[in-house]
Amino acid sequence: MSNPSKVTKAEDDTQGRASVAGARKPGATFEPRIVAFLCKWCSSAGSDLAGVSRIQYSANATPITIPCSGSVSPMYILSAFNKGADGVLISGCHPGDCHYMEGNYLARRKLYLVKELLQFIGLESERFRMSWVSAAEGAKFAEVVDEFVEDLRVLGPQNRLKAKR
Amino acid sequence: MEKILNQEKLREWVDMLDDCEVYAPAFADSVWNFARIEAGTDIDLSHTNTIGSVKEFVFPQREVFFRFEKKDGVPVLTPTLPDPKPTVVFGVRPCDGRGMPRNDTVFNKEFVDPYYWARRDKLTLIGLACNLPHSPNCFCQSVGGSPHSEDGLDVLMTDLGDRFHVKGITVKGVEAMERGRDAFDAVRDGDQAEVEKVHDTSRSFPQRPLGNLDAIPEAIRENFDSPLWADMAQHCIGCGICTFLCPTCHCFDINDEVISPTTGEGERVRTWDNCQFPDFTMHTSGHNPRADLGSRLRQRVSHKFLYFVENHKTQQCTGCGRCITECPVGIDIVAVLERVSQ
Amino acid sequence: MVNVEEIRDYAANLLKKGEVKSVLGFRRGSASAFAEPCTITDVGEATSLVWDPTCLNNLTLYLVKDRKQQAAAKNPDNRPVGIVAKGCDSRAIGVLLQENYFKREDVVVIGVSCEGTGVVDPRKLSAKLKGRTASRVTFGGADGINVSVYGDETETVIPAREILADRCLECRAAVPALNDVVFGEAVGAREFDEPFHAAKEAESLSADERWATWEHHFDRCLRCFACRAVCPMCYCPECVVDSTTFVVTLGTSAEEKANRIRWCERSANTSESAVYHLTRTIHLAGRCIDCGECERVCPVNIPLRLLNTKLEKEAFEMFEYQAGHDIEQASLLSSFRDEDPNSFIR
Questions:
Q1: Chain A residues with CB inside 8 Å of B263's CB?
Q2: What digits encode the pLDDT tens for the residues A65-87?
Q3: Which of B136, B193, C298, C316 lies at 20 to 30 Å from A113 by C-alpha?
Q4: pLDDT band at residue C188, thresholds of 50, 70 and 90?
């Protein structure tokens, strides 16, 4: 699926650069970097649970705790892609469970539009993902991240919206 | 050096400039603009005027001054002086050509700008005389130019229907012509007369008049505090079209684009700026001396027809008419000067 | 046919009775064959008003500008403003009312029906004339639109289908629904094209093809910000791409300057221009009424309208939302329904 020459070129280009943190060893297979915006009331705690439960999962996601998935500005997503993220994950509370009653419903609508727009201009649709993960779903969080990493590995590095300097 | 080039030989000449980057007007996205020409492709010189001016070749919208990073806590700077291939631009209209000496003055007078000159020294401009004014907003003759002005051009071509009359003006221009030697024919009897006739006709078309150029600076000075400016800028939207498309507007901004705050890695870049934007004159204190659009219109017009005249004894406007034609709300610098002069 | 004299009389009457402080309309300008915006304050000036397919601008922008000016003025003049508005323009007024930017009594809407035609698209005209300038553009009756070209005064008739703005070809509401008076017949739209047809066409391409298109366009962007400057919905006092409120004092350290939030750089790069345009598109979601001004003013002809209509299409199809049609409804992004799409979320 991915173009091998493209992958090699992009890897050279990102050697030694760490504007978005993520595991990256020279010569290793492509390790995608994910920026994960996690709601503090659910997914952030879910990721902690995955950790304390000693669930093995990919270390490619840089978590950023946010007050609510509804607080995610589309700017965060665009900015993450601009700074070189290979994927962006937004994770919030299941419908009906929002600490602020309706933040996740507002997020769902807003981020649906962001997803459609990113796809429309030609960003690979797999690069932007949303999930509902509660504080009790450590295993689901690990699964979401693992799946995302696998899909991004196939796609290779994100070069479309990344700043080229 | 004067030569004749048959229309079908144009491509031959372009092909012989194979170690240069060649640009020519192309009609794409419903607009004429300069585009890179690959060897073996035809160029179309039936263009009106390009939307972007030739200043882009010497004063690109983004110029990297140097790269910086922190190594062992010490800042390290890497110079990035451009070293472009020789560049030849075809189809430059005389108004754009006349913009060049004005830009040269700006980037040469108090400070010799190495980035500008690195590109300028490698640039050859091949002009094309306008047999017809391409827009009703042309006013080159009203600011001292002409539809076949040689000022700032290295070569001037004149379209004679089936062939071009080609005149080498500068050393660079003559060199470019010598490269395409076999493509050219000698000038024959009658060619010169024909060129003169075409030039005379091109000058006879009516253009937008500016009246007495010498009286304009005083008129602007007298009207500095006039409510006219606010009135004329009433519908201005404050975008950057007029200045970005102008062949002589050269204001810029310098920013540090930091890639990584941890490694202190980044670039210092020069980008176009313009007097119509709110942050152009913004002070660090938050005070903005040109807070309203009227004062910004005044600035644009004054810079071109008053301050530049005071500093460099010539107008900083070559009458290309882009700012008039492309203004989304019909602000017309000729009409503005007319009102100010009354 | 709209009788322009009726518009002039109505405007003059509003000014004479003192019901408005000014009337926003169109007049002939010196810059081109297209009409230019004007603000008339004297009864006598009403005779300069015109109405034809060259009245491109969405004058709603000047209602916003007036609000901003009055808010900053020492002695604000808050009398109502009259405005000549097409169907699309009246929807822009609708969105501004919905957002409480001003009140209904602050504006007198002089509605003008496009009567099943619309306005000319300067880009299509330029493509027809290969960059040459039109010196006169007038209605040519049912046949289309008469165009004379500068330097060649013969008049040619171009079929309206080929030269009208895309939004006019797709328009289904050419009569201003929000109005104080309407001139012209309530002729339905021409329905040349299906609404959102350009967006649907673009969707049918592959991701690689779509990116090739947009990379090309983002790369060409000059960042003159005309699209933002002309948009009546872009009324933020400070845009994310400007930094007019980052105050630097003697105590501001180099680190603070380097680390200040800059969502995108000034450089006109593909990546930075993408951030700018995508941010603008998202910010207009559910607010863009498709007046097409952003696309019209773009000097390098980036098809900006396509980005906005894509989101309006989603708003309509997924959320049954149409911007500017109902000033009482909650805005697109401040409301939700249980049945909103959820399957894209894991």
A1: 18
A2: 999 999 999 999 999 999 999 99
A3: C298
A4: low
pLDDT score of B243 more than 80: yes
Q: Give every strand in the sheet of B163-168, ordered side by side.
A: B31-37, B21-28, B87-92, B123-128, B155-159, B163-168, B2-6, B184-185
- Among positive and negative, which fits the CA dihedral A139, A141, A145, A148? positive
Residue ranges per structural domain of chain B = 2-341
**Which pLDDT tens digit goes with each residue over C27-72?**
999 888 999 999 999 999 999 999 988 999 999 999 999 999 999 9
Asked if A164's CB is within 8 angstroms of C269's CB, the reply is yes
Residue A120, classified by CB atoms within 10 Å of its CB into exposed (0-12), middle (13-18) or buried (19+), is buried
In this structure, the number of other CB atoms found within 10 A of the CB of residue B223 comes to 18
Domain ranges of chain A: 33-155
Distance CA(A150)–CA(A156), nearest Å, equals 10
CA-to-CA distance for B323 and C4, rounded, in angstroms? 30
Mean pLDDT of C180-192: 82
What are the chain A neighbours of B268 within 8 Å (beta carbons)? none
Distance (Å, whole) CA B154 – CA A104: 64
**How does pLDDT run across C236-270, given as a tens digit for each residue?**
988 888 766 677 777 888 777 767 778 888 899 99
Cβ of C237 under 8 Å from any chain B Cβ? no
* Coil/strand/helix, residue B92: strand
Fold of A33-155: Rossmann fold (3.40.50)
SS3 content of chain C, % helix, strand, coil (to 5): 40, 15, 45
Q: Which residue has the higher pLDDT, C117 or B269?
A: B269
Please provide the average confidence, as pLDDT, over all residues in chain A: 86
Q: Are C199 and C309 within 8 A, CB to CB?
A: yes
* Chain segment C328-343, per-residue pLDDT in tens: 999 999 999 999 999 9
Contact state of A17 with B259 under an 8 Å Cβ cutoff: yes
Q: Which residues pair with C85 in a beta bridge?
A: C111
Tokens coding C134: 């039109």
Euclidean distance between the first and final Cα of chain B, in Å? 46
* Percent with pLDDT over 70 in chain A: 82
> What Cα–Cα distance (Å) separates residue C135 from each residue in A142, C146, C344?
66, 11, 52
Structure confidence at residue C255 (pLDDT): 75
The full set of domain ranges for chain C reads 1-193, 195-327
Measured at the CA of B163, the angle between CA B161 and CA B164, to 5 degrees, comes to 100
The tokens for C116 are 């099943």
Interface of B with C in 155-184 (CB under 8 A): none
Q: Are B239 and C230 in contact (CB under 8 A)?
A: yes
Partner-chain residue, chosen from A17, A19, A165, that has the shortest CB–CB distance to B267: A165
- CA B25 to each of CA B31, B126, B157: distance values in angstroms, whole numbers, following the listed order: 10, 12, 15
For residue C49, give Cα distances in angstroms to B7, B291, C296, C309.
49, 30, 22, 31
pLDDT at residue C147 in the model: 87
In sequence order, which residues have a C-beta less than 8 Å from that of residue C85 and are 6 or more positions away?
C59, C60, C93, C109, C110, C111, C112, C176, C179
**Strand arrangement, sheet containing A87-92:** A61-66, A34-39, A87-92, A128-132
Compute the distance between CA of residue B53 and CA of residue C299 in angstroms, rounded to an integer: 12
Q: Which of A140, A30, A26 is nearest to A89 (CA)?
A: A140
Q: Identify all chain C residues contacting A122, using CB atoms and an 8 Å cutoff.
A: 207-215
List strand residue ranges (DSSP E) for A68-156, in order: 87-92, 128-132
DSSP conformation letters of C102-168: S-GGGEEEEEE--TT---B-HHHHHHHHTTPPEEEEEE-GGG-EEEEETTEEEEEEE-HHHHB-HHH
Q: Which of C61, C126, C258 sits opposite B261 (nearest CB)?
A: C258
